[in-house]
Amino acid sequence: MTKFIPHHKTSTTSGVSSAELPGRPYEECGVFGVWGAPDASALTALGLHALQHRGQEAAGIVSLDGGSFHQHKGLGLVGEVFGDEAVMSTLKGTAAIGHNRYATTGGTHLRNVQPIYADYAFGGMAVAHNGNLTNAATLRRQLVQRGCIFQSGMDTEVFVHLIALSTAPTITDRLIEAARQVKGAYSLLALLPDGTLAGMRDPLGVRPLVLGRLPDCGEGGWVLASETSALDIIGAEFIRDIEAGELVIINKEGIKSLRPFGAQGNRFCVFEYIYFARPDSILEGHPVYTARTRIGRELARESGVAADVVVPVPDSGVPSAIGYAAESGIPFELGIIRNHYIGRTFIEPTDQIRNLGVKMKHSANKAVLAGKRVVLIDDSIVRGTTSRKIVDMVRAAGAAEVHMRIASPPTKHPCYYGIDTPSENHLLAARHTVEEMAELIGADSLAFISFDGLYKALGDEDQREAANRYCDACFTGDYPITLVDRDGHLLQA
Ligand SMILES: O=P(O)(O)OC[C@H]1O[C@H](OP(=O)(O)OP(=O)(O)O)[C@H](O)[C@@H]1O
Ligand SMILES: NC(=O)CC[C@H](N)C(=O)O
Ligand code: SF4
Ligand SMILES: [Mg+2]
Predict the structure, then answer these.
(1) Is 320 helix (H, G, I), strand (E, B) or coil?
(2) Does ligand 2 come within 6 angstroms of the Cβ of 104?
């Protein structure tokens, strides 16, 4: 029987969770796992640090040392939760999984920090999930009726109960049985009592998951991570992407790949390329940086404007601004300076703090902007908070004209697959035309990349074919996975 040794951080939050507020923020989660390496939990903390951009609310690690699981989780950044050597020394073992959380289902409380650890018939088990299940509420109601007692508000916990209730003979079969019942997006890691590290991607591969290997670890050294940037930080070699619908099982017998769902196509999240992923990551064969600079080039070809300087809105507008400047021949300048001691704007839960956040984060570089015709490049407009403030700031710094160019199509629909975008009535593009948006943000002109331009930049000449290979529902409203909880009443009608 496995043992469980918790090392809980005692901090908790009171107050409302960001996920429970009306205009919710816009982030996701990172997962990292390592098998067969000394200092597995230290490697995991480093991997989570490289994935910090994917979620900044909470972090957790569960390690496995022979038959004992060890756990430490807390609210806050990786450095805050795992900065203490005494804590790290408790996380013993040669296998570990970790998670950076930005809530999509279940608020920001200590009880909602991942990985989730639970005991079931075969022993202990830990699960870490990036994504969001679209039938979690429906399944949860059924499970509660069957007597399940939920410990958290997270969709992810449904997985744990489905595994525990399964009567399948092996843990692998139980995982598959659970996966067949859930709908939605998941890149999931599980640490199992027989010493197995499992990694699974949903049948359409909406969220990323990559496989890597550390040198000098004999038969071990296997790494699973949301992005390749987490392999780079620990010196692991990138082996390949885990495929859509693939389940990998890593244990003493080596690595085994299963495809329990058959081939169902691939609908990778196109927003990973536009905004979420780190620019130094390579996902699904495309370097994120190259994708972004190419989008910038397409944007310049599609909606060029006479101007003196191209200015990125830091951080994620930078690579597309480099592409725009190169294609248009207009000089690239850092007209907005980013303060490095503040995180992503959306992390703050109230509109008031969000507004303050943008001011704290960006300031205008007058020397570059005064008297100039400026093209501002950002990756996306969600609520419009950032663009409104930035346009104002650039004008106040003396710019003669301010033109805004956006490296994504207008964001008109919420995401239900693991990105915490606001509901439609908070999305600027859902309620206004491009002309109205230009007026609202105070720009002289505003243009977004077209779908053709976006997919051309990703290497696909045929837009319709490309649209079948990516999820782009937040731009098109074409949701590739059924929204059971949202549309349940319609299905029953
Ligand atoms: O229209 P809004 O509601 O303001 O949201 C859009 C902005 O939010 C994101 O930036 P963020 O500051 O979160 O992170 P970044 O530093 O990675 O660009 C995105 O890059 C846009 O700049
Ligand atoms: N953003 C995510 O991937 C979140 C994972 C999971 N749905 C949670 O709420 O914790
Ligand atoms: S809806 Fe948008 S953010 Fe969500 S998975 Fe699809 S493309 Fe990505
Ligand atoms: Mg930004």
Answers:
(1) helix
(2) yes
C-alpha of 141 from chain center? 27
Determine if ligand 3 sits within 6 Å of the CB of residue 474: yes
**Ligand 1, closest atom to CA 357?**
12
More confident residue, 108 or 278: 278
pLDDT digits (tens, 9 = 90+) for 299-318: 999 999 999 999 999 999 99
Q: Is ligand 1 within 6 A of the CB of residue 346?
A: yes
Annotated catalytic residue 217: no
**Span from the CA of 226 to the centroid of ligand 3 (angstroms):** 16
Question: Looking at the domain covering 287-476, what would its CATH class be?
Answer: alpha beta
Q: Name the CATH superfamily, with its identifier, for domain 3-266.
A: Aminohydrolase, N-terminal nucleophile (Ntn) domain (3.60.20.10)
- Tell whether pTM > 0.90: yes
Parallel, antiparallel, or unpaired for β 68-75 and 116-120? unpaired
62-95 tens-digit pLDDT: 999 998 999 999 999 999 999 999 999 999 999 9
Alpha helices in 51-107 (DSSP H): 78-81, 85-90
Was 217 annotated as part of a binding site? no
Residue 203's closest CA among 128, 141, 259?
Answer: 259
Q: How many CA atoms lie within 13 A of 167 on its CB side?
A: 0
316 is in an annotated binding site: yes
Can you tell me the distance from the alpha carbon of 28 to that of 36, in angstroms, rounded to the nearest whole number? 28
Q: Is 380 annotated as a binding residue?
A: no
Ligand 3 pocket member 479 (CB < 6 A)? no
CA of 131, nearest ligand number: 2
Q: Domain boundaries in the chain?
A: 3-266, 287-476
Q: Predicted ipTM?
A: 0.98
